Amino acid sequence: EALVADRIEIKMDFSSQDIQRQLQRLEERELPFAMALAATRTAKASQAAIKNEINRVFDRPTPWIQNSTYVLAAKKSDPTAIVYAREWGGTPAPVTLTPQIEGGQRQYKRSEGALRAGGYLPNGWQLAPGPGAKLDKYGNISRGQLQQVLSGLRVQRDAHQNRRQGKPTEFFVVRPGTSNPLQPGVWQRVGRRPTLILTFIQQPNYSQRLDWHGVALRAGEDAFADEVTKAIDDILSKTFSR
């Protein structure tokens, strides 16, 4: 028997002008957009890595510290995405965290500056919560009690006049180096028994705990190649599906 082969012909009609137009559009419009998209996604990967590292190295970080970054998206005209640090009262988060990022001494807090200006807190000393401090869920002295202390020492006004159950409370300070047997700090006396609200500690030196820059760079380097590929694939699928 003779074998009969069926011949299948496929005819494709390409227009060279259409292809050239698509490629030109891809080069001029789509690829720059793809690079900007990849840069933005890479920056978001770095942002997520920073947040994960903050939650890993710190005990109960505040929401402001947890969400201390935002991403400035890249553009087609400028394919550069930036992970910025948010500010609180004009102070960027990395400045607040500088001792944790680079080691060294932390900046004075506003409350410490107020007590220092009032002559209560000597230079080189900082505050820490004492046994009588009311702590918030992040381990810091509550704002209400801190305002009460500052008002009671007359370094900050308080409309509530520091009243507790209708009885006046009294705050007093024991400065370091005095002969007072009480520990240096801010004490509150309700009745006869004083309670240590804020203790004075000498300005400590911190070792690096948060590798802010290293974590961001490593996450960006790991993500960039994949994000470029994904972005180009996304752009190509949209371009040639039209």
Which short descriptors sum up this protein?
alpha+beta; 10 strands; 4-stranded antiparallel β-sheet
Question: What is the topological layout?
Answer:
Blueprint: H1 16-57, H2 63-66, E1 69-72, E2 82-85, E3 87-88, E4 91-92, H3 93-96, H4 98-102, H5 110-117, E5 125-129, H6 143-152, E6 163-164, E7 167-168, E8 170-174, E9 185-190, E10 193-202, H7 212-239
Antiparallel strand pairs: 1-2, 3-4, 5-10, 6-7, 8-9, 9-10
Helix pairs in contact: 1-7
Fold and architecture overview:
The chain is α+β, with helices and mostly antiparallel strands. 42% of the residues lie in helices and 17% in strands. The protein has helices at residues 16-57, 63-66, 93-96, 98-102, 110-117, 143-152, 212-239, and strands at residues 69-72, 82-85, 87-88, 91-92, 125-129, 163-164, 167-168, 170-174, 185-190, 193-202. Helix 1 (16-57) runs antiparallel to helix 7 (212-239). The protein is rod-shaped.
Strand content: 15-25%
Query: What overall geometry do the principal axes of the alpha carbons give?
Result: rod-shaped
The total count of helices amounts to 7
Number of DSSP-assigned strands: 10
Structure, briefly:
The chain is built from seven helices and ten strands. With about 240 residues, the chain is of the alpha+beta class.
